[in-house]
């Protein structure tokens, strides 16, 4: 069933062209819904064990997949947000089936990333998620997309090629028979070589995460994407860096992680604060959201790098649910753009005519800036709590971000939704039809997991404990 | 006392079949139309391939080891045949427009293939040299066949520089013979390890001259300067042939000489390392600044030479396997990309990169096919180019060339940018009129493309289908025939 769960979206996107044109959107919705259903069924049956068969035997590459713990949570959120994005995309994008097909094929890449337990397989899925993202940007992007494209691709590939070298190095220097994670962990690399390999791995993850100073592709990528926000939803799911660090880097490079911990934590805390500060100055919704996401990812990185149990749990929690509200906010921005015709934050007075849109957006922003009772709070608070035990000062610096976040979010929200409606402005209609569930469903989930976090924590906690006990962190 | 030479026909058979095709084209060209001959030649290639498959694991040799049909030869030979068949298929549709549609084109092509196979099957330096010369001379003619200033210039450049390369190569062979007293790979390999210092100097000098000579043929920097002009100036189907088949053959020779005969000889590895680094940098950076798509592909071929050379720096058992896989994949990718250029170009100078804008909306199938080729050339999974690059990295990395591997990774980023730009332009909206050659039937090109795309995807998802054959290290330990 796990294989079906991973490859069903890809299959759907390949077969979509066979259906008559008017049915293709429905097919996409059905496929994502079915995928989500499969995911929930997997969850209900308690995740899956490790499935491993040789893939390229001569090279020691295996097809090893497993969905449990953290990876299951992330995969479920991915499947859920893909469904939401497709729901919105089909009515918002002109001639949508090509984009929906790309969304579906990207979903397979993302689910594969979370399921992979073999480093080469992980790399393959990692790159496979890249291709549809590039195509979406190329086909539906804004006027200066070429620059964004080249920047995005160059950063990503620079990182991932260095990671590939690290992967080869880990297997070869550790003398492991295969690239499967379990084998590699049993044949560790020690000494200075481990640090170098960790840095190679980090190069890829820091780009994806992204971590300052490897973040420059992010704002351009989001700004130039299609205004509906559908590609951005997939883009936010793209932040697999935190997950990769947790699942692969910590078990494979424990000594190096410990050795570089202060530097990396500092970098992460700086990223969080720096991004929040830049976000405050943005006047374009998508760039603002991009920097807000970057700030969240700084938190995630802080949690992972601190190697403290509470913090890592918080980081994974944040990583999973940040997708929900940031993704939904991107879609909300798409709705706003459809109504007022621009992404500028200085519109003014939208609330008077589109109350539901404003209200839902505001609630989602609350989730994003970690207001208690919403999912973001659980994550950010745990990260700070854990990081404080490792490095109080860095936790303090990162903690300042929460204040900055409130400032940029409320400021932007206020200039767009409150204030006077300018003279001669177009009439703005409120939410209708499928737009309601598109914003309300993610909010409901964020609210649920903000109040009752046990179902997710039950999955995340044992996984984190397992990793950290093997690593020897505190 | 006259001794009868040891002539076994079985290992010669694949080469003889191809030669028969060439002779047919030469003679029957007076009576039969060219297209018929092309089909005859395609059949000859298929027969030759069948012959090779039946020889698998036979390890037969002829002329006292001068010609060896061992598994390494067969793997590389099959790759040569694939590239040649693709060239013939593409030429069915485009040779007429390129004004090279006469039987001599086919004849020359088949002679060149004969030479290529001789190199792959060679067991001593003389057979290798004969093959190389047959291949090169036919190549010069092919590049000039079209009556145009550009083609003549390309051919002349190719001839002059190729002749210099051959001269250096022959001089290197002479020095090797002087140092070791043997011309067979096995003999050289045997004697290379126990030489007096004076002879060792001659051996190293000979090895370096051979390396430069081969450097001309495979376009290693700084011997690559003819490549963009020749690939860009020759008719596109000829560029396709030169950049795939001829390169495969030259690499087969390199592998035989440096992976086999000179595997234990000192001195050439550091030089090859420097040449590889230079090739990676020059090829990738120069491709970044091209505006003509065909020229860009020419520079990308130079860049791929760098990756291919990386495999030569690995241990022969890993490097040889990597090389055989990469060469086949490279043939598919490059042939497909150039086939699309050949099908869509208006003139033989190819098309500008900006002309590709919006191709998806005019010719969706070609655009998707080209995008797949570009993704594979850039080394993105799940396409086969990824495993090619991976294997090349692995071979060099595991032999201790970590710095070079990192450099290769960095230069790949430049590669990604220049493959990405046309790749993404294909899918961007465009409202200006089409700039492609819109007429004509292209069934043969379509077939060739289908083969290439199937190869790129299937070998990317299941690399074992081909790599499983080549992964056996025993194949590559006997490169010199020991």
UniProtKB/TrEMBL annotation, chain A:
Q: Record's NCBIfam families?
A: NDH_I_M
**Is DNA-binding there in the keyword field?**
no
Note the superkingdom of the native organism.
Bacteria
| Keyword Membrane among UniProt keywords | yes
Query: Which family is this sequence assigned to?
Result: Belongs to the complex I subunit 4 family.
Query: Any idea what this protein is called?
Result: NADH-quinone oxidoreductase, M subunit
The molecular function GO annotations come to:
NADH dehydrogenase (ubiquinone) activity; NADH dehydrogenase activity; ubiquinone binding
From TrEMBL, chain B:
What UniProt keywords are attached to this protein's entry? Answer: Cell membrane, Membrane, NAD, Quinone, Translocase, Transmembrane, Transmembrane helix, Transport
Quote a single Gene Ontology cellular component term.
Answer: plasma membrane
Task: Enumerate the Pfam families for this protein.
Answer: Proton_antipo_M (PF00361)
Q: How does it sit in the membrane?
A: Multi-pass membrane protein
Classify the source by domain of life.
Answer: Bacteria
Reaction equation(s) it catalyzes: a quinone + NADH + 5 H(+)(in) = a quinol + NAD(+) + 4 H(+)(out)
The EC number(s) given in the record are 7.1.1.-
Q: What class of enzyme is it?
A: translocase
The cellular location(s) given in this protein's UniProt record come to: Cell membrane; Endomembrane system; Membrane
Decide whether keyword Cell division is in the record: no
What sequence ranges are listed for the domain NADH:quinone oxidoreductase/Mrp antiporter transmembrane?
122-412
The record lists the membrane-crossing segments as: 12-32, 39-59, 71-90, 102-120, 126-146, 158-180, 200-220, 240-259, 271-289, 296-313, 325-344, 365-388, 400-420, 447-469
- UniProt KW Nucleotide-binding keyword: no
Q: What is this protein called?
A: NADH-quinone oxidoreductase subunit N
Q: Which organism is it from?
A: Deinococcus gobiensis (strain DSM 21396 / JCM 16679 / CGMCC 1.7299 / I-0)
């Amino acid at each position: 069933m796990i294989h079906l769960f991973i490859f069903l979206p890809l299959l759907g996107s390949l077969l979509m062209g066979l259906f008559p044109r008017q049915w293709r959107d429905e097919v996409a919705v059905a496929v994502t819904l079915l995928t989500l259903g499969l995911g929930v069924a997997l969850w209900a049956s308690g995740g899956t064990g490790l499935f491993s068969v040789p893939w390229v035997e001569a090279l020691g590459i295996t097809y090893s997949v497993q969905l449990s713990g953290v990876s299951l949570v992330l995969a479920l959120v991915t499947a859920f947000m893909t469904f939401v994005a497709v729901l919105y995309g089909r009515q918002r994008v002109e001639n949508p089936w090509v984009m929906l097909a790309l969304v579906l094929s990207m979903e397979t890449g993302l689910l594969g990333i979370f399921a992979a337990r073999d480093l080469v397989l992980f790399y393959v899925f990692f790159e496979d998620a890249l291709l549809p993202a590039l195509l979406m940007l190329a086909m539906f992007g804004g006027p200066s997309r070429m620059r964004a494209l080249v920047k995005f691709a160059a950063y990503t590939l620079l990182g991932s090629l260095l990671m590939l070298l690290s992967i080869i190095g880990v297997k070869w220097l550790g003398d492991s028979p295969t690239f499967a994670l379990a084998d590699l962990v049993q044949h560790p690399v020690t000494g200075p070589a481990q640090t170098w390999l960790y840095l190679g791995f980090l190069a890829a993850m820091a780009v994806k995460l992204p971590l300052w100073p490897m973040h420059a592709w992010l704002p351009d990528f989001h700004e130039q994407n299609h205004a509906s926000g559908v590609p951005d939803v997939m883009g936010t799911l793209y932040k697999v860096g935190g997950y990769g660090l947790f699942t692969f880097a910590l078990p494979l490079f424990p000594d190096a992680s410990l050795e570089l911990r202060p530097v990396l934590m500092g970098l992460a805390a700086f990223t969080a604060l720096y991004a929040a500060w830049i976000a405050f100055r943005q006047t374009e919704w998508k760039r603002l959201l991009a920097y807000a996401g970057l700030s969240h990812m700084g938190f995630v990185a802080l949690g992972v790098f601190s190697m403290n149990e509470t913090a890592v749990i918080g980081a994974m929690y944040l990583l999973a649910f940040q997708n929900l509200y940031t993704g939904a906010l991107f879609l909300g921005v798409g709705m706003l753009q459809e109504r007022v015709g621009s992404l500028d934050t200085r519109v003014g007075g939208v609330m008077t005519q589109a109350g539901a849109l404003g209200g839902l957006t505001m609630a989602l922003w609350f989730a994003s800036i970690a207001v208690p009772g919403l999912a973001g709070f659980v994550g950010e608070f745990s990260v700070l709590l854990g990081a404080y035990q490792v490095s109080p000062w860095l936790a303090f610096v990162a903690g300042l971000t929460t204040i900055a976040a409130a400032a940029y979010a409320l400021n932007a929200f206020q200039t767009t939704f409150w204030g006077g409606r300018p003279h001669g402005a177009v009439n703005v209609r409120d939410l209708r039809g499928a737009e309601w569930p598109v914003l309300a469903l993610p909010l409901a989930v964020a609210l649920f997991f903000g109040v009752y976090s046990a179902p997710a924590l039950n999955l995340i906690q044992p996984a984190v404990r397992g990793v950290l006990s093997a690593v020897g962190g505190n | 006392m006259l001794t009868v030479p040891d002539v076994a026909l079985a290992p010669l058979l694949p080469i003889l079949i191809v030669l028969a095709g060439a002779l047919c084209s030469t003679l029957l060209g007076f009576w039969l139309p060219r297209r018929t001959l092309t089909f005859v030649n395609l059949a000859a290639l298929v027969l030759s391939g069948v012959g090779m498959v039946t020889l698998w694991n036979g390890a037969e040799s002829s002329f006292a080891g001068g010609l060896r049909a061992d598994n390494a030869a067969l793997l590389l030979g099959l790759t040569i045949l694939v590239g040649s068949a693709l060239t013939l298929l593409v030429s069915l549709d485009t040779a007429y427009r390129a004004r090279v549609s006469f039987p001599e084109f086919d004849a020359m092509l088949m002679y060149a293939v004969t030479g290529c196979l001789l190199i792959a099957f060679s067991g001593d330096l003389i057979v290798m040299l004969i093959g190389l010369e047959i291949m090169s001379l036919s190549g010069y003619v092919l590049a000039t066949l079209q009556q145009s200033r550009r083609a003549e210039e390309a051919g002349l450049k190719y001839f002059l520089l190729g002749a210099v390369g051959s001269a250096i190569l022959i001089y290197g062979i002479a020095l090797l013979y002087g140092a070791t007293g043997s011309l067979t790979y096995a003999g050289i390999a045997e004697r290379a390890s126990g030489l007096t210092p004076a002879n060792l100097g001659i051996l190293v000098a000979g090895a370096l001259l051979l390396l430069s000579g081969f450097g001309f043929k495979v376009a290693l920097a700084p011997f690559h300067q003819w490549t963009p002009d020749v690939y860009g100036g020759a008719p596109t189907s000829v560029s396709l042939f030169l950049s795939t088949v001829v390169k495969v053959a030259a690499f087969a020779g390199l592998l035989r000489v440096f992976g086999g005969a000179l595997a234990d000889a000192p001195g050439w590895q550091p030089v090859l390392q420097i040449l590889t680094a230079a090739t990676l940098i020059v090829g990738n950076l120069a491709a970044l600044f091209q505006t003509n798509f065909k020229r860009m592909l020419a520079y990308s071929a130079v860049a791929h030479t760098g990756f291919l050379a990386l495999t030569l720096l690995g241990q022969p058992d890993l490097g040889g396997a990597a090389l055989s896989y990469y060469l086949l994949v490279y043939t598919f990718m490059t042939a497909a990309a150039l086939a699309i250029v050949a099908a869509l170009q208006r003139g033989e100078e190819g098309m500008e990169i900006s002309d590709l804008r919006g191709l998806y909306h005019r010719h969706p199938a070609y655009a998707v096919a080209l995008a797949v080729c570009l993704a594979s050339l850039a080394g993105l999974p799940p396409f086969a180019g990824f495993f090619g690059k991976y294997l090349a990295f692995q071979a060099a990395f595991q032999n201790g060339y970590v710095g070079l591997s990192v450099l290769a990774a960095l230069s790949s980023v430049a590669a990604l940018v220049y493959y990405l730009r046309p790749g993404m332009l294909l899918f961007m909206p465009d409202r200006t009129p089409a700039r492609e050659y819109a007429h004509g039937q292209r069934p043969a090109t379509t077939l060739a493309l289908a083969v290439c795309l199937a190869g790129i995807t299937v070998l990317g998802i299941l690399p074992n289908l081909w790599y499983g054959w080549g992964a056996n290290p025993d194949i590559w330990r006997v490169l010199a025939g020991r």
